[in-house]
């Protein structure tokens, strides 16, 4: 473009000095300006198209990376969830076993208390019967004659 401007300046100077100057030479130069402008425009459009394609490719790559990261995150979440469910199941099983042990212990303590209560009642009954027999014997041995 600078060469064309320089050439235009020379032709302009020549047109001012030379009376036989052919104006078609300036028209030819103007066509060269037009061609150069179209070339620059085409080059700019080509450059913009290339930048657009690069940006689209970069966007596709970013989307793929985001998809991979999201899939990895979801897989990690699933693994964590499964692990937590396994831990919950193990803890629940442990609690159920402890509850069953406590229930059995409670049943055994109830049976032991029932047996102890029955023995206590039997001992009390035996003691009462022995006291009654002793009282009868004492009462029968200390009889006063009514005379």
TrEMBL record:
Keywords tagged on the record: Coiled coil
Lineage: superkingdom: Eukaryota
Organism: Arabidopsis thaliana (Mouse-ear cress)
Recorded coiled-coil stretches: 38-112
Full protein name: Maternal effect embryo arrest 9
């Amino acid at each position: 473009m600078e060469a064309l401007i320089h050439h235009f300046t020379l032709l302009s100077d020549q047109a001012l000095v030379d009376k036989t100057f052919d104006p078609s030479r300036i028209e030819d130069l103007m066509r060269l300006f037009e061609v150069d402008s179209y070339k620059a425009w085409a080059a700019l459009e080509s450059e913009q198209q290339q930048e657009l394609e690069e940006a689209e490719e970069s966007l596709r790559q970013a989307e793929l990376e985001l998809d991979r990261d999201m899939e990895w995150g979801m897989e990690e979440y699933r693994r964590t969830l499964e692990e937590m469910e396994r831990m919950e199941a193990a803890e629940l099983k442990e609690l159920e076993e402890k509850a069953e042990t406590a229930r059995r212990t409670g049943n055994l303590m109830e049976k032991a208390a029932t047996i102890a209560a029955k023995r206590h009642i039997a001992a009390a009954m035996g003691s009462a019967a022995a006291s009654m027999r002793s009282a009868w014997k004492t009462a029968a041995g200390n009889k006063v004659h009514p005379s």
